[in-house]
Specification:
- With about 140 residues, the protein is α+β, with helices and mostly antiparallel strands.
- It has one domain.
- The protein is built from 2 helices and 8 strands, in the order H-E-E-E-E-E-E-H-E-E.
- Strands 1-2-3-6-5-4-7-8 form an 8-stranded antiparallel beta sheet.
- The longest helix is centred in the first third of the chain and has 20 residues.
Length: about 140
């Protein structure tokens, strides 16, 4: 009798494990974005370039590292706006080196900002004293 009960328990555990494997998996989306003056609005003539490595989690968490080259960077952020438009800062980054910036621990998007991300309406840009509105920019695109 104990053997039958044990087999029933094993079958129940196996069934739960099988069902769990079909549950939707929350996957963070990491992307490398090239930053250039041509992507700024209006476009900026600059020899500067950069890259942004941005990970957006299903929980709306944001992890980012931005590296700029050929400029003296003063600030970097994620802004909310479609390509070809400018929008407000929604995730400010912390300067960690001469031309490097990172997201703060615990940075998150709101539900509305996450929907904008999924619609391709977020961008990263890097500001300088010469171009306080932004010198280089790249649009984020959810996969």
């Amino acid at each position: 009798m104990r053997c039958i009960r044990y087999m029933q328990q094993l079958a129940a555990v196996a069934a739960v494990g099988t069902l769990a494997s079909f549950a939707p998996q929350a996957i963070a989306q990491m992307q490398e974005v090239a930053l250039s003056g041509a992507n700024e609005v209006p476009a900026v003539q600059s020899g500067a370039s950069g890259t942004a490595s941005v990970t957006i989690g299903a929980d709306h968490s944001v992890t980012a590292k931005v590296v700029a080259k050929g400029m003296t960077a003063t600030a970097s952020h994620i802004h909310e706006a479609a390509s070809g438009a400018n929008g407000p800062v929604i995730v400010p980054f912390v300067k960690t080196g001469d031309n490097t910036f990172e997201s703060s621990p615990g940075a998150k998007l709101t539900d509305a900002q996450y929907e904008s991300y999924k619609a391709g309406k977020l961008y990263v840009n890097v500001h300088s004293a010469a171009h306080p509105g932004g010198e280089i920019r790249g649009q984020l695109a959810a996969k």
